[in-house]
Design goal:
DNA-binding; homodimer; 175 residues; elongated
Chain lengths: 175, 175
DNA sequence: TGAGTATGAATGAATG
DNA sequence: CATTCATTCATACTCA
C-alpha cells in the first residue's frame, strides 16, 4: 500500500520476450527470469532462504530490474498456487454425466498429478553443492491429513430428476 | 503462462440462451449459472471458502461444464469490479468527471444492480451455513520475510557495467 | 467488421 | 502457508 512504486521499471525485457504490457509499477518478470525461477522451482527449490533469494535476485537482476522481494513473492505464490490449483481443478471433472442421483463424488482421487519434480538428477546437484542447505525437502514428510474434511456435509445432490433444468427455487439451498 | 488451457469447454449452453457457436478456451457461463452465482453474491456471499466453491461448482456443473476455479474467479472478479466501480464513482468528485457517457443499456436494470448492492449490512462475507471447523493453528511468528520486503532501498546493483548478459549456462549454478 | 466493453484468467503484492 | 486485493492480460460479445 505504501511502497507501490519502488522501481521505475526499465523493463528491457531481456531477450525475445513476447510480452506486450511493459508498463511499470510492479515487477514484470522477463521470460528469462521466469525461466530461471521455474527451473529452480522444478529443481525442487520451494522456499529459498534469504541467502538464496539474494543470490537469485542478483543473478536475475541482469535480465532486468528485480528485487529480492520479487523473488521471495514469486516462490511464495508459485508454491501456493500450485497447491491451490490442485485443490480446485480436481473434484469437478464429471462434465456431462447426467447422473440424476447417486452421483457420489466419492473421495477425490486425483492427487496423482504427474509432476516432473520427480527428476532429482536434474540440477539439484548445483543446489546443494555447498553448505547452504537451508532448503532441503520441506515437503514430503508433512504431507498428511489436512484437507478433505468435506465429507461431513455430504449433501445428496439429487436435484432434478428428469430435468431440463432444476427448480430455480432451490438455487441457494445446496450450500 | 503455461497454464492457459484448463478446460476444453463443451459448452452446451444449458438453457435456451441465444448464444452462438460458443467456441471455447475459457469458461463461458450459462445464464443459469450466472443467475445462481449472482444470487449467491447478492445474498451476501463474497468470498466463498474452498468447500463452498466446491459445492457451488458441483451444483453448477449441471448447467454445463464448469470447474471450481471458475467459481473462484467469478467471485474474485465480481467482488473486485464492484468495488472498483464504486471507488471510481465516489472518489471521482475531485475531478468532477461526468459519467453521462455510461448511459448505454442503463434502463432500470443497471440502476437496480448498483443500488441493491449498496446495502450496508447485508454482507455476510462467507456465509457459513455449516459448521466450519475450528483451527488450532499454532502459527509461528517467523517474519523472516521482512528482511527483504520493504527493504527495497538496499539494492543497488550497478549492472550497467558493460556486460550484456551472463552466460546462459550458469543459470542455476550460482546458488 | 472493428472499436469498445464485459468479463474470465493470471499473477504480483500483501496480510494474518 | 492460506487467503485476499489490485492490476493487468486475454478473449468473448455487442453494437453501430
Amino acid at each position: 500500500m505504501e511502497d507501490g512504486m519502488s522501481g521505475f521499471c526499465i523493463k528491457a525485457r531481456g531477450g525475445g520476450n513476447g510480452s506486450t504490457g511493459t508498463k511499470c509499477g510492479r515487477w514484470n518478470p522477463t521470460t528469462e527470469q521466469v525461466k530461471v525461477l521455474t527451473d529452480l522451482f522444478r529443481s525442487g527449490l520451494r522456499t529459498p532462504s534469504t541467502d538464496q533469494i539474494q543470490k537469485i535476485s542478483t543473478q536475475l537482476s541482469f535480465y532486468g530490474k528485480i528485487e529480492s522481494k520479487n523473488v521471495f513473492y514469486w516462490f511464495q505464490n508459485h508454491k501456493a498456487r500450485e497447491r491451490q490449483k490442485r485443490r480446485r481443478v480436481s473434484i469437478d471433472d464429471k462434465d456431462f454425466i447426467r447422473q440424476d442421483q447417486q452421483e457420489k463424488v466419492s473421495s477425490a482421487k486425483h492427487f496423482a498429478e504427474i509432476h516432473e519434480v520427480s527428476e532429482p538428477e536434474r540440477v539439484i546437484e548445483t543446489l546443494q553443492l555447498f553448505p547452504l542447505n537451508s532448503y532441503d525437502e520441506p515437503e514430503k514428510l508433512r504431507r498428511h491429513a489436512n484437507e478433505y474434511l468435506r465429507d461431513t456435509t455430504a449433501y445428496s445432490y439429487n436435484f432434478g430428476t428428469e430435468m431440463d433444468h432444476p427448480p430455480l427455487d432451490l438455487r441457494l439451498s445446496f450450500l
